[in-house]
Amino acid sequence: MAVPSSGSADRGQPVAEAPDRALMARLAVGDREALGLLMERHQRRLYRLALAYLRNPEDALDVVQETFVKVYVHAARWRESYEVSAWLTRIAINQAIDRYRREKRRRQTMTPLDDTLPVPAPSGSSSPERSVGRREMRDNLASAIESLSEKQRAVFLLRHREELPLEEIGRALNLNLGTVKSTLHRALARLRERLQEVRT
Amino acid sequence: MMRAWLHRRWMRRVALLAVGALDGHERTRVELHVETCPGCRELLGAYRGVWRTCSEDPSREAELPVGAAARLRVQVARQIEAFGATPEPGTRAARSLLLAGAAAVVVVAAATISLWYAGTGGAERHTRRAAEPTLQVPDVAFERMERHLARTRAVRYLAEARDVLVNVASETPHCDRQRHRVDVAAETQRSRELLVRRDLVVDVSAPEMAAARNVLEDVERTLRDVAALDPCADPEALLALRRDLTRGQLLMKIDLVSQELMG
After folding, report:
1. Which of B13, B16, B22, B59 to mutate to test the interface with A (most CBs of A within 10 A)?
2. Among A119-128, B238-247, B248-257, where is mean pLDDT lowest?
3. Considering CB atoms only, which of B18, B63, B98 is closest to A188?
4. What distances in angstroms separate CA B65 from CA A114, A121, B21, B39, one per listed residue?
């Protein structure tokens, strides 16, 4: 993969500073250097999204990898009117869903995310009790998110993490607006129920 | 009955309000309703609580594992090259340009990763680190990490291949009942993907793969057989494959070799 260079984008900007749209336009005509820059800008965000969905770091990395290969292959499908970030998100979430379906059985035996992610940093002073509390909260949250169906999880994460408008979520997942709304509602209700269960 | 139905509709709107998905007139309407409906008020508080709690999910702050960014770049570049992945029509005109740059890209990627391996992130850091030899990680540690990564990748590849073979060996739904054909479209597709990926993720000639070489070759052969099936296959062809699988005890061998690779 090419590393950013001091070349120039179409409008005279250094490539490394070119906006995402300019990079996508370059990629669409086969400029692979643009892909390297897009990766640098978006890989961490897409990794976090895939990780939130799949709950497994290795799978999440694979999804990011597959996403960028797809971005390269399908670059010509990108249109000026598309928000680049949302377009990448759309590819990534669908890759994550595909992977989730493929590896549903295997996931039962994989390392749980809880053992591979850090406990959230304490906001104030730390104590063993607080640390245990945070760990419990993290475990409960992970189990609540995992209890969502694949569609609920995708809709929920696209709204919660990516703050995508509902219409955009619908486009990303090929759902109509009404379905997005009801799925989001069901996801919230389900999470509430699960989080209440573990508290009582 | 009507009241319950109406209330359900309000509940959905309350959920949308809680996640900030309502604007303008709709938002005002729901806010006014919430003021007069204790049940919806409570629900709004609960949903907002859930929304806040979900912000504590550790994946929100997760960083890419050490070295993953460099690995990703190399893997994507290799995948594009080795898979013969080409941009869709519309970008083919640039294909010759791409190919010309491909070698340079791979060289740069290799240089990037070797720089990373040497514990440097750029010229400045490189110089600084060179002056601080105690911060350098010994080559042997990276070699060990590389070997471990190679084994892990092989195990993952074998696990994915195993899933395909388990599906092939299991009861398969019909795609055409009248012609007694069975649906193996997903398995054939997945086999093709795995075959394409194999050269990237598994270096059969590597010394650490010696123990797995025979099984990897058997797996490749079987995946080729699966990939060659008609997506809506004749059950006889599938039966022959299943017989070979049972006779060769391939699934068991995959398990054993995977355990061995992971030590």
Report:
1. B59
2. A119-128
3. B18
4. 15, 18, 33, 45
Decide: helix, strand or coil at residue A6: coil
A16 close contact with B: CB closer than 8 A: no
Angle at A96 between CA B150 and CA B86, to 5 degrees: 70
Q: Please give the residue of chain B at the shortest CA–CA distance from A188.
A: B47
Q: Which of B59, B76, B87 sits opposite A65 (nearest CB)?
A: B76
Q: How many angstroms separate the CA of residue A58 from the nearest CA in chain B?
A: 9
Q: Name the residue among A161, A185, A192 with its Cβ closest to that of B46.
A: A192
The dihedral through the CA atoms of A39, A40, A42, A44 has a sign that is positive
What is the strand order of the sheet B232-233 is part of?
B174-176, B181-183, B232-233
Per-residue pLDDT of chain A (200 residues; tens, 9 = 90+): 443 333 444 445 566 667 899 999 888 887 888 899 999 999 999 999 999 999 889 899 999 999 999 998 888 888 888 889 999 999 999 999 999 888 775 555 444 444 455 544 444 445 556 566 667 777 888 889 989 999 999 999 999 999 999 999 999 999 999 999 999 999 999 999 998 876 66
Radius of gyration, alpha carbons of chain A: 19
Q: Is the dihedral of CA A182, A188, A192, A194 positive or negative?
A: positive
Q: Does A130 touch chain B (CB under 8 A)?
A: no
Contacts of B188 (CB under 8 A, 6+ apart): B226, B227, B228, B229, B230, B231
> Pick the residue with more confidence: A186 or B157?
A186
Contact yes or no for B140/B150 (Cβ under 8 A): no
A57 vs B contacts (CB less than 8 Å): 62, 65
ipTM over 0.90: no
Q: How many CB pairs under 8 A join A and B?
A: 169
